[in-house]
Amino acid sequence: MRVLVIGSGGREHALCWAIANSPMVTKLFCAPGNGGIAEIAELVDLRAEDIDGLVSWTRDHAIDFCMPGPEAPLVAGIADAMEAAGVPCFGPLAGGAQLEGSKTFMKEVADAAGVPTAQWRRFTDAPEARAYVAEQGAPIVIKADGLAAGKGVTVAMTTDEANVAIDDALLGGIFGEAGASVVIEEFLEGEEASFHVLTDGEAVLPLATAQDHKRVGDGDTGPNTGGMGCYSPASIVTSEIEAQVMETIIGPTVTEMNRRGTPFRGVLYAGLMITATGPKLIEFNVRFGDPECQVMMTRLRSDLVPALLATRDKELHHIALRWHDKAALTVVMATQGYPASYPKDTPINDLDAAEADESITLFHAGTRRDGDQWLSTGGRVLGVTALGETIAQAQTSAYRSVDRLDWPRGFCRRDIGWREIAREG
Ligand code: AMP
Ligand code: GLY
User: Fold this and answer.
1) Do 306 and 214 share a structural domain?
2) Residue 294 maps to a domain
């Protein structure tokens, strides 16, 4: 079969890598992809947000299955448009994608389903929002309602900070329409974990657990990023916690989405806070995490493609997935300056040396090739991913690989996996 993956990040490289390994796939395309993806798929020069362009290209090129990676096209209705054009497409229809597209929608669904999550209120008026913050006190969390490319959340440790975030969104308009309303939430205390399932609206299949490092600096300090590193499994998600998450968060949400007539299908990624009183939902995403996808695909031993097809075809009850007992760990390498501004087209050398060990896979997130020279094209640029007997071993291999790379303008955190390694003892 002929498959099109949509997106250009490390997640999409990992998806392409897994899909290209499937004996079912005769030809793989990726739009727009990146330099690393070009080694295993044919690139298509269309942006992930260009839904009309992608649909017509897909029809012209006899694509049998379409796999969107990022949330933006899903929220904008790419699955609806592909299906209407007769192209089977993984992922939720726009109605289901609202679980990520609107924080208000997600909180309403969570409340209707009785899902444990932070208490919240929605505001469009700045003085009312400030009054609520004054009443609740800090710490408190302010979120732009819509998609803000991961930048719409302020965890305010003081009421002053909260008020600035409110004014920026509601008066300053810094998030545009996405910040025309804000959700103000109770601050949840605990450790975060990433929990992904595949669901076709009836069957639900949990995937491997993971933990991500969202802050840019060592010791989880500095500004939030898309994710600076990740590992799987995450032992904080014990089998008891996993059972609780399935029973109190995932199951009721799938049921509630069916009740509303907008069944959810695709990958549902719950961002969890493991609190002293059990797991609570922070947010839903309607796509794989990035870099969570990189560690999950590295640990997956089964063919991914039948699982994706079954999710779309409502046949998921037939699927079981096998995972490596080994651990996987990804160190994200980014261009100096990320998550603020950073230069483009900085030269990266010795990629082959970095990938020489059998335990290493390099997932490209923002590269291109100019003749024999690799260049950076983004903030997050590479995901150096290692398999190991333990997280500590995977970490050692990943940093050995990082140190073989010659990229003067790149940086990474040096402590990916620290929580788990402390637990491994
Ligand atoms: P989100 O974009 O909703 O994932 O939020 C980004 C980050 O903000 C999360 O990964 C958490 O670290 C933090 N966060 C979001 N909501 C809360 C909350 N209610 N309590 C504590 N931290 C939160
Ligand atoms: N790594 C976090 C995310 O993909 O949202």
Assistant:
1) yes
2) yes
Residue nearest (by alpha carbon) to ligand 1 atom 15: 282
Shortest-distance Cα residue to atom 4 of ligand 2: 289
Give the confidence band of 180 by pLDDT, cuts at 50, 70, 90.
Answer: confident
Tell me, in angstroms, the distance from the centre of ligand 1 to residue 78's CA. 27
Closest ligand to Cα 211: 2
Q: How far is the CA of 269 from the centre of ligand 2 (A)?
A: 9
Cα 291 to averaged position of ligand 2 atoms, centre (Å)? 7
H-type alpha helices, 192-291? 239-245, 251-259
Per-residue pLDDT of 98-109, as tens digits, reads 999 988 899 999
133 and 209 fall within a common domain? no
Strand order in the sheet with 27-32: 42-43, 27-32, 2-7, 65-68
The answer for residues whose C-beta is within 8 angstroms of residue 41's C-beta and 6 or more apart is 5, 16, 20, 28, 29, 30, 33
375 falls in which pLDDT band (50, 70, 90)?
very high
The distance between the two most distant Cα atoms of the chain, rounded to a whole number of Å, is 60
- Identify whether residues 300 and 340 lie together within a single domain: no
* Pocket-forming residues, ligand 2, beta carbon under 6 Å: 212, 227, 285, 289-290, 292
pLDDT at 179 over 70: no
| Closest ligand 1 atom to 271 CA | 4
Please choose, from the candidates 415, 367, 366, 375, the residue with its C-alpha nearest in 3D space to the C-alpha of residue 216: 415
Contact 386, 230 (CB under 8 A): no
State whether residue 203 is helix, strand or coil: coil
Based on the domain organization, do 164 and 81 belong to the same domain?
A: no
Q: How far apart are CA 425 and CA 416, in angstroms?
A: 15
| Residue 311 sits in the same domain as residue 195 | yes
Do residues 394 and 403 lie in contact, with contact meaning Cβ atoms separated by under 8 Å?
Answer: no
**Structural domain span for residue 418:** 327-424
- Among 282, 283, 290, 419, which residue has the most ligand 1 atoms within 8 Å of its CB, making it the best to mutate? 282
Number of domains in the chain: 4
